[in-house]
Amino acid sequence: MHIGTTITQFIIEEQRKLTATGDFTSLLNDVVTACKVISKDVDRGALVGILGSAESENIQGETQKKLDLITNDVMIKSNEWAGHLAAMASEEMEDVYPIPPQYPKGKYLLVFDPLDGSSNIDVNISVGTIFSILRCPDGVENPTAEDFLQEGTKQVCAGFALYGPSTIMVLTTGNGVNGFTLDKTIGEFVLTHANMTIPEDTSEFSINTSNDRFWEAPVKRYVDECLAGETGVRGRNFNMRWVASMVAEVYRILTRGGIFMYPKDTKDPSKAGKLRLMYEANPMSFIVEQAGGLSHTGVERIMDIKPNELHQRVPVLLGSKNEVERLVAYHQEQ
Ligand code: P6P
Q1: What is the phi/psi pair of residue 6, to 5°?
Q2: Nearest atom in ligand 1 to 249's CA
Q3: What is the pTM of this model?
Q4: What is the domain partition of the chain in residue ranges?
Q5: Is the distance from the beta carbon of residue 246 to the nearest atom of ligand 1 less than 6 Å?
Q6: pLDDT digits 0-9 by tens, 101-126
Q7: What's the pLDDT tens digit per position in 267-324?
Q8: Closest protein CA for atom 13 of ligand 1
Q9: Average pLDDT for the chain
Q10: Atom number in ligand 1 closest to CA 62
Q11: The listed CATH number (3.30.540.10, 3.10.310.10, 3.40.50.720, 3.40.720.10) that belongs to domain 7-193
Q12: Which residues contact 28 (CB under 8 A, 6 or more apart)?
């Protein structure tokens, strides 16, 4: 029985459309392999003693889980050897990871969050891997952080794996968004969600409401109007979801619409937001826009931002077009 379109077949067919070299296709397959290994590690969890804290902190000052380090190593080992990359960068590494001298270098840069939502791993709630592929600037042999600091519009590919009831891979190379479910009986991702599009309207919002007192006025206004439901200006009731895993929130929005908000707040005035631009906001923005949604800080389109720091944080308002437009309008009215 034919198993359907595998992700390998899909990527090769995309390559033909892009008239891309096999280099990109092979790189993407190495990332896919890493996500299969991470899916296995996340699935094994407590059985092999890899849950809990690693008793270390990342550059963000966040306590690292054992699986943060394990999954970061999986991404490095799966992608450092093949000769497609000039360097890598990760939420879990302060500096750029150079390709070891025993391996050839390639023309792409890979930046990733190896285990997004890892605070959920010990309570068995969905987590994921987010990645973004950029071109290495011409003539750069040994990329530095500076060479990664490219606008989101420069991304060649963005994707995430969601380790939930199913393991699902979502990909865009700029020609729409496609979802693949991991068939663990054959170890292949199979196309199950072709041409994913986000409904322009929604009655479902996502935000960590415990930060309510720290929000800026436009966000407060928007959320209060949602909470007022049919008794207020919106004239309809809203539902709320907060998983604390961006991958899970974005996948839900891709399947049924919604608006996800992690706005700038005054909880820590030194931070421009919680989410990181290079390996959370930009790849997710590429995917959301390719699916017909919007992704904005309230002041500017996220993919237009010229990064100034590898681990730069930004406010994120993304999802169903008409709701993001409303919230942006509230920012412009203030
Ligand atoms: P909070 C996970 O740590 C993450 O980066 C996103 O995946 C998620 O949306 C957000 O932070 C959760 O933040 O403050 O609710 O724990």
Answers
A1: -80, 165
A2: 9
A3: 0.96
A4: 7-193, 204-332
A5: yes
A6: 999 999 999 999 999 998 899 999 99
A7: 888 888 899 999 999 999 999 999 999 999 999 999 999 999 999 999 999 999 999 9
A8: 244
A9: 95
A10: 3
A11: 3.30.540.10
A12: 11, 133, 157, 171
Question: Widest CA span of the chain, in angstroms?
Answer: 66
In the chain, what percentage of residues exceed pLDDT 90? 83
Amino acid 20: pLDDT: 66
Atom 10 of ligand 1, nearest CA residue: 244
Confidence of residue 265 (pLDDT cuts 50, 70, 90): confident
User: What is the CATH code of the structural domain delimited by 204-332?
Assistant: 3.40.190.80
8 A C-beta contact, residue 262 and residue 144: no
Phi, psi (degrees; rounded to nearest 5) at 85: -115, 145
- CA dist., res. 291 & res. 289, Å (int): 5
Cα angle 162, 38, 241 (rounded to 5 degrees) comes to 25
Helix (H, G, I), strand (E, B) or coil at 286: helix
Distance CA 205, CA 52 (A): 30
Distance 12 CA to ligand 1 centre (A): 34
Mean pLDDT, residues 253-279 = 94
Q: How far is the CA of 248 from the centre of ligand 1 (A)?
A: 11
211 lines ligand 1 (CB under 6 A): no
